[in-house]
């Protein structure tokens, strides 16, 4: 159905400070997770951990949705991996609005974990994620393997270990967010990557600008990857900002892998995929106090 791409790529409730609006935002976590679970089941990319967070794949998704998620996941991963490589993993990662994301487990399996990996989301979503981790050994075992003490700090809305931390917080409340990150030993002098897959778009422009400005002011060397727009970064203290629409990202990904995923499902209307991908972009902003140098994220990027 024609409404499917809009629902799966970014359901966008009206911005309002109300429980109803917040619940609509929280529901996008499930939408995205189910879409990713389905795409991995079709072979678009490998994620052995998502099955422990999302049991059901829901209804079949259109091929353009699966390809859109493939481009989004691979694009974000390319940027993250480039940052980890440039800093030699001597850094931190903060995933804002992480939902049921499985990146920590991927990095642990690939032996490319940063010094510490933080996730922040609504307390209700965090509580669900913590429950999955506690009750499923394939999720808890990698976490325990990276922790030196006998016990983890664990309550309903926070989990803290040596290398992984989940925090229940509202991103609109900067002072509370900063307090919690500092409580769990974030180091503002260490190069820090902020990931924001689909978060800022659900905040008012004032709220999102405050968040982005706080990151630029607080962290000495930082990168902010955002699956949305670039203008706000230039106005909030970042030194450089780059952006590519998802059609460009799709074209810059390894061609042998593009050929592989395009054989998975027949796509009747390529124009629909092009329209969908051109509607979204990935942008990355950099504040480079330590002179880490330019990030050549995509090998074929000119």
From TrEMBL:
Keyword Iron: no
Catalysed conversion reaction: [phosphatase 2A protein]-C-terminal L-leucine + S-adenosyl-L-methionine = [phosphatase 2A protein]-C-terminal L-leucine methyl ester + S-adenosyl-L-homocysteine
GO biological process, one term: regulation of signal transduction
Alphabetized Pfam families for the sequence: LCM
A GO cellular component entry from the record: cytosol
InterPro entries: LCMT1, Ppm1/Ppm2/Tcmp, SAM-dependent_MTases_sf
Enzyme Commission code(s) on record: 2.1.1.233
Assigned protein family: Belongs to the methyltransferase superfamily. LCMT family.
PANTHER family in alphabetical order: LEUCINE CARBOXYL METHYLTRANSFERASE (PTHR13600), LEUCINE CARBOXYL METHYLTRANSFERASE 1 (PTHR13600:SF33)
Entry protein name: Leucine carboxyl methyltransferase 1
């Amino acid at each position: 159905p024609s409404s499917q791409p809009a629902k799966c790529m970014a359901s966008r409730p009206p911005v309002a400070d109300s429980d109803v609006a917040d619940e609509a935002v929280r529901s996008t976590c499930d939408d995205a997770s189910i879409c990713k679970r389905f795409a991995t089941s079709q072979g678009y990319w490998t994620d052995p951990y998502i099955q422990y967070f999302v049991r059901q794949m829901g209804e079949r998704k259109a091929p353009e949705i699966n390809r859109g998620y493939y481009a989004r996941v691979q694009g974000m991963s390319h940027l993250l991996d480039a940052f980890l490589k440039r800093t030699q993993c001597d850094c931190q990662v903060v995933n804002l609005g992480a939902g049921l994301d499985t990146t920590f487990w991927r990095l642990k399996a690939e032996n490319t974990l940063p010094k510490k990996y933080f996730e922040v989301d609504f307390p209700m979503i965090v509580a669900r994620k913590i429950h999955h981790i506690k009750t499923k050994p394939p999720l808890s075992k990698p976490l325990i393997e990276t922790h030196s003490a006998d016990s983890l700090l664990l309550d309903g809305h926070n989990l803290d270990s040596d290398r992984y931390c989940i925090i229940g917080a509202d991103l609109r409340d900067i002072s509370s967010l900063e307090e919690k990150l500092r409580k769990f030993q974030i180091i503002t002098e260490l190069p820090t990557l902020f990931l924001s897959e689909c978060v800022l778009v659900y905040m008012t422009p004032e709220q999102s600008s405050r968040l982005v400005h706080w990151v630029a002011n607080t962290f000495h060397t930082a990168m902010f990857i955002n699956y949305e727009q670039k203008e706000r970064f230039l106005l909030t203290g970042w030194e450089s900002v780059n952006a590519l629409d998802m059609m460009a990202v799709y074209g810059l990904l390894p061609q042998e892998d593009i050929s592989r995923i395009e054989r998975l499902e027949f796509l009747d209307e390529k124009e629909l995929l092009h329209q969908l991908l051109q509607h979204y972009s990935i942008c990355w902003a950099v504040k480079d106090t330590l002179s880490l140098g330019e990030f050549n994220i995509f090998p074929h990027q000119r």
